[in-house]
Amino acid sequence: xxxAELSADEARRLQLRAQGLLGAGARRGGVPxxxxxxxxxxxxxxxxxxxxxxxxxxxxxxxxxxxxxDAAYWGDPAGTAPHQARTFEYWAHAASILPVADWPHFAxxxxxxxxxxxxxxxxxxxxxxxxxxxxxxxxxxxxxxxGGARSGPGTGSMSDSWAWSEHKIAIEWMLDLGEVVCVRxxxxxxxxxxxxxxxxxxxxxxxxxxxxxxxxxxxxAGRALGxxxxxxxxxxxxxxxxxxxxxxxxxxLVPVTVAGWRHRAWADPDALAEPxxxxxxxxxxxxxxxxxxxxxxxxxxxxFDHRLEAYVPKHKRVHGYFAMPVLAGGRLIxxxxxxxxxxxxxxxxxxxxxxxxxxxxxxxxxxxLAEALRRAADWVGCDDVRIERASDAELTxxxxxxx
Length: 403
Description:
Strand content: 15-25%
Order of helices and strands: EHHEHHEEHHHEEHHHEHHEEHEHEEEHEH
Distance between the termini: 54 Å
Low-confidence stretches: none
């Protein structure tokens, strides 16, 4: 078999374009188009400038309104119109928003949950029947409507997050099995409805085989990454390596070699057919952005050591609580740990990668950092930016001059 040979720079550009961060075509289709390209947008409870699922389209589309993001994901935010799901929330790379068209292709995972019989908690007898009856009678409900998510008043400890009420255990298990879906969010609470009401009938009734599911997901991972190793393909939807092996040929990906990569890779043939050219996005990225959510891939493709430190004790943090990678010129040039004080965006900590902080590069890098900070500030309604701390005095001075 003939293998295409790619340079490391070609692979990097292919991945940026596939992720919607290179070229004018990335803006086509707005938020739904971005979700369709990526295949999955990771959810997380942390909100600094915005929640991660809002930051992902912002990075690709610019200052898209938050209401527009929510409407693209969940439709009518007030829940006043009859609902037909545009997306569903499920376990992909992690808890994620997925295009509703992909509903059938997670049937293999739903079947695996059913065979296992539980996920995190043993499901109390009769609890699913009670939830099912309530949803049938009353329509979409939150866990609060069902009696609350916790089994008790809570103590504020980490263990509280696992002290689920019987109805919370039941409805999350029903989501795992595909009996219910999240049709919208109110605040940060899921609003659940029966899948038979929310998922279009042709999708609900389609149950592909495991081989068909895996081929579809590996194909989509390949398209979303442009070029990827076996481990990259597996990580995107949290598949097993042997599942990728069984599906990669049916997925239509082509084997390639990439200079400097230790392992063989596969590429989307459509991505190879067209040179990855165009303007580069300059932006702050969510730490949960699919460009960087795989640490090994971020290191290999961008030479960037990415780690979320929100769950690291404060005294052990190097880059800050919610350090956001800074993308400029197709490279990850540094990090910003942001916060807000009124109408001021505060860069609590700013750092550049060593190569981006050399005398020849620092002015260009600082300009890009300042641009990314200004754009983010405008998007979240701030009219000022303050640099609190930077990795060196020269960077502080240059940044403050630009801002």
